[in-house]
Design brief:
Blueprint: E1 14-15, H1 24-33, E2 36-41, E3 45-50, H2 53-60, E4 65-66, H3 73-76, H4 87-91, H5 100-111, H6 116-140, E5 145-147, H7 148-153, H8 155-165, H9 172-183, H10 189-212, H11 218-228, H12 235-266, H13 268-275, H14 281-291, E6 297-303, E7 307-309, E8 312-314, E9 320-323, H15 324-328, H16 331-334, H17 364-381, E10 386-387, E11 409-411
Parallel strand pairs: 1-2, 3-9
Antiparallel strand pairs: 2-3, 4-6, 5-11, 6-9, 7-8, 10-11
Helix pairs in contact: 6-8, 6-17, 8-12, 9-10, 9-12, 10-12, 12-14, 12-17, 14-17
Amino acid sequence: MNTSPVNSAADRPHRMDPAGGCPHAANARLLARGAVTPVVLPGEVAGMAVLGHDALREFLAHPDVAKNAQHFAALQAGGIPDGWPLKTFATVQGMTTADGADHRRLRSLMSKAFTARRVEELRPRIEALTSSLLDGLDESAADGVADLRTHFALPLPMGVICELLGVDPGHHDRLHHLSNRIVATDIGPAEAMAANREMVEVLGAVVAARTEGPGDDLTSALIAAREENGDRLGPYELIGTLMLMIIAGHETTLNLITNAVRALCAHRDQLDLVRSGGATWADVVEETLRWDSPVSYFPFRYPTRDLTLDGTVIPKGTPVLAGYSAAGRDTKAHGPGAAHFDITRGSENRHLSLGHGAHYCMGAPLARTEATVALAQLFTRFPDLDLAVPESELPRHASFVGNSVQRLPVRLRR
């Protein structure tokens, strides 16, 4: 049993690459060493990552693991500068950084908007927006090639989440750009701080507009909850909640749709299986979530005591990354074929890509609905759709948080 995070040359901390890139080769090497590994975060900040499926499942639901940054030892000791690119993940006020009663309070304010019933009521709107975007994708094609990520995979979830929140369409492009900057891990302090300031300014304008003219949207409902009971939702929590909803509500589904299309183009036999009725679009979504998780390493959780996990001690107050992309290909959980894209796994597909425990992704029903509708309509409209460039030429995300490519040029027809 290990008694410290680092006890041999083989266990030297893995340096997280701020430039991101495809995580799977590095994940395989790290998993061969164990389910938990020490890492070095940008700025030489010491951390840990939980990679193995079973270890991650235990960690995500562990009663002695917190989300509030008051448990982040280095931050509380003054060792984390303001411009640290990952600081927003730790300090933003909202559900993802709250514990216990605070987390339940914030989650209860949002939960009614994301129930399976409410999402099913949104299905006609999602289907109509999908169809309209496919028209636009076709129109944007030059010589039959279009960027599916820019013209389809992005505006679908962004349009839906902004409509739910009552955000004017004029803000959509800017909010995506700022979200992309906030989840980036390769930017400098000045750019990181500027992106956060501007995001707060844009969302402040959204709140002001909805305060002056409330509507049938989630932001108006949150403002009403704040005004009805002053301690129900503080002003920083309101902005933080909107920031989290915008980022999580579109970035992950954007990556999910992008990664699913890439997977199907590379595995035409699996695409044929869906078309023949041997599997469903829901099966494609679940296998994509496992095989190429939209989120690779999500920051942060902190043990509230020294915690032994799979034989490795994670010291109290350590910032820990949840390694979703690694857990998805853990052969101990998914068998020797874990690295294979196989949509026939069915009930055996026990991935963790939408989380586990109290912080399980509230938007999971919405993300699944958006992705299944998007894929079904896309490949019905363009049955011969394929990548326009080799997979190896697709530029990767400049982040080890998000897991996808920056562009997805596709040829719509033969």
